[in-house]
């Protein structure tokens, strides 16, 4: 094993094809690293505390999505953040010595306050200010030395490293300084060209049926200047082509035919729908197995047991060096 990784996702809605590259990266990493993957439900409260989310349903759905894509509970611990109380305890202890200025300078803090306040969200809370510190506790309680993230999360990993350094300086060396493992996450638009989001009703679910895939692809926005199928196309302005670039091996051939007016939008969409069905159909098959009553619950329970072995040892060491 190359080391230990931790990563997680918030259960705030169904996962869609835009999340797929992240999960597939985890699937590959679990073969080389001791892996802890958490459904970080406490984090969901930082921006959705007023929404009264149906957490039992949302947590089960995200676990099903992970398992269907290929996260293996024999290789990786899959668990709920709220089931591991050491996350919250370490977050509290970190909050005693972390300067406010460190939290206030995290780039996403002011950006998200501005963006979400436009949606009527009140984010003037300690929970929102402190969520990068909770994220640091999530990582460090496992002494993870590698964290797979997108580029937008790099400031959070740097904060995590600073917290580890400050703790080690004040109390004695306990924590490693984790390294970010930056994955390339393709930015897929929704079928209408906007950001892919469940709230916009423009996403392709990881659990989509063949008919749903076909319907969603048919809804995709194409070149507005192309009125007839033999008109020359402009793939760079077409949502369908953005998906072809990721999920169609012969994308160069498709693009050439489009520009030459040798393939119409209907046929182009049909070709994409077929490729997406090949991609998603194995997920549906695995999902059907894991949907059997009790199977997800057993995975989460066993994952939590494995996680607690590590977190309890870490917290014993933390309490000892802090004199608690």
Biggest sheet strand line-up? 1-2-3
Oligomer: single chain
Number of strands: 5
Mean pLDDT: 92
Distance between the termini: 33 Å
Q: What do you see in this structure?
A:
With about 325 residues, the chain is mainly α. Helices cover about 55% and strands about 10% of the residues. It contains 14 helices and 5 strands. The longest helix has 28 residues, at about 295-320. The model has no long low-confidence stretch (mean pLDDT about 90).
List the helices and strands and how they pair.
Blueprint: E1 4-9, H1 20-29, E2 34-39, H2 41-48, H3 55-69, E3 76-80, H4 85-95, H5 100-104, H6 107-117, H7 126-129, H8 131-140, E4 146-149, H9 154-171, E5 179-182, H10 210-218, H11 239-247, H12 251-259, H13 265-290, H14 295-322
Helix pairs in contact: 3-13, 4-8, 4-14, 8-9, 10-13, 11-12, 11-13
């Amino acid at each position: 094993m190359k080391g230990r990784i931790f990563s997680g996702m918030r259960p705030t809605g169904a996962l869609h094809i835009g999340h797929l590259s992240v999960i597939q990266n985890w699937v590959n990493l679990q073969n080389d690293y001791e892996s802890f993957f958490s459904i970080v439900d406490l984090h969901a409260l930082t921006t959705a505390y007023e929404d009264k989310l149906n957490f039992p349903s949302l947590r089960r759905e995200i676990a099903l999505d992970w398992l269907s894509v290929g996260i293996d509970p024999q290789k990786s611990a899959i668990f709920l953040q709220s089931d591991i109380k050491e996350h919250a305890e370490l977050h509290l202890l970190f909050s005693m010595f972390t300067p406010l200025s460190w939290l206030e300078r995290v780039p996403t803090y002011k950006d998200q306050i501005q963006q979400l306040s436009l949606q009527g969200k009140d984010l003037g809370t300690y929970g929102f200010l402190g969520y990068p510190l909770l994220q640091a506790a999530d990582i460090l309680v496992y002494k993870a030395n590698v964290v797979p993230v997108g580029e937008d999360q790099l400031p959070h990993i740097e904060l995590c490293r600073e917290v580890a350094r400050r703790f080690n300086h004040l109390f004695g060396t306990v924590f490693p300084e984790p390294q970010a493992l930056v994955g390339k996450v393709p930015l897929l638009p929704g079928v209408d060209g906007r950001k892919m989001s469940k709230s916009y009703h423009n996403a392709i679910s990881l659990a989509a049926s063949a008919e749903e895939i076909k319907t969603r692809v048919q809804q995709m926005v194409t070149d507005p200047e192309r009125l007839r199928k033999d008109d020359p196309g402009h793939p760079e302005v077409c949502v369908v082509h953005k998906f072809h670039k990721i999920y169609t091996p012969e994308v160069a051939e498709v693009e050439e035919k489009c520009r030459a007016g040798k393939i119409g939008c209907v046929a182009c969409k049909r070709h994409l729908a077929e490729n997406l069905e090949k991609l998603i159909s194995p997920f549906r098959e695995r999902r059907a197995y894991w949907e059997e009553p009790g199977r997800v619950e057993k995975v989460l329970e066993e994952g939590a047991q494995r996680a607690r072995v590590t977190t309890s040892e870490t917290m014993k060491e933390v309490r000892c060096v802090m004199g608690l």
